[in-house]
């Protein structure tokens, strides 16, 4: 017991009790709709208003803006989202899998979507299927 107390005093505040560095990604300059973010487009600001480096910065690189963003405005969803891997009105492969059977069709995506996003696909004049983007140009239906 005494040894544990001495260790706590020697080490100072436990890691769980230390305040976490809080930093927010903000736009380094005005950004237009549809722009793909680079490291130069992102500044990190900590809770006290100073500059900070954060792991969030690298996670945002490659994301796309969904609307205009002013300089200094926080970068968060829905204004910033992952890039689309399926574009509207482009050909896609439609895949259906069930217990060892795989069926593939060709279709046309009706909307743009990022990886994991929902997309509607027209497979012929009268049929449409809803699915999830699993890879660039590939939609899986259930």
TrEMBL record:
GO biological process, any: bacterial-type flagellum assembly
Signal peptide start and end residues: 1-17
Assigned GO CC terms: periplasmic space
Top-level taxon in the UniProt lineage: Bacteria
InterPro entries listed in its UniProt record: Flagellar_FlgA, SAF, SAF_FlgA
SMART domains referenced in this protein's UniProt entry, alphabetically: SAF (SM00858)
Domain called SAF: residue spans: 22-81
Record carries keyword Signal: yes
Glycoprotein in keyword set: no
Keywords: Bacterial flagellum biogenesis, Cell projection, Cilium, Flagellum, Periplasm, Signal
Short name of one Pfam family: ChapFlgA
Subcellular location field: Periplasm
Role summary: Involved in the assembly process of the P-ring formation. It may associate with FlgF on the rod constituting a structure essential for the P-ring assembly or may act as a modulator protein for the P-ring assembly.
Family designation: Belongs to the FlgA family.
NCBIfam families in the cross-refs: flgA_cterm
Protein name (record): Flagella basal body P-ring formation protein FlgA
């Amino acid at each position: 017991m005494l040894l544990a107390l001495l260790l706590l005093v020697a080490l100072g505040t436990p890691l769980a009790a230390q305040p976490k560095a809080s930093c927010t990604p903000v736009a380094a300059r005005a950004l237009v709709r549809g722009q793909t973010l680079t490291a130069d487009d992102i500044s990190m600001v900590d809770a006290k208003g100073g500059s900070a480096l954060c792991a969030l910065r690298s996670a945002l690189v490659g994301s796309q803006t969904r609307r205009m963003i002013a300089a200094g405005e926080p970068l968060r969803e829905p204004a910033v989202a992952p890039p689309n891997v399926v574009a509207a009105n482009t050909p896609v492969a439609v895949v259906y899998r069930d217990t060892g059977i795989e069926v593939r069709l060709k279709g046309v995506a009706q909307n743009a979507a990022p990886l994991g996003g929902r997309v509607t696909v027209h497979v012929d004049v009268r049929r449409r299927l809803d699915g999830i983007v699993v890879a660039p140009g590939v939609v899986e239906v259930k």
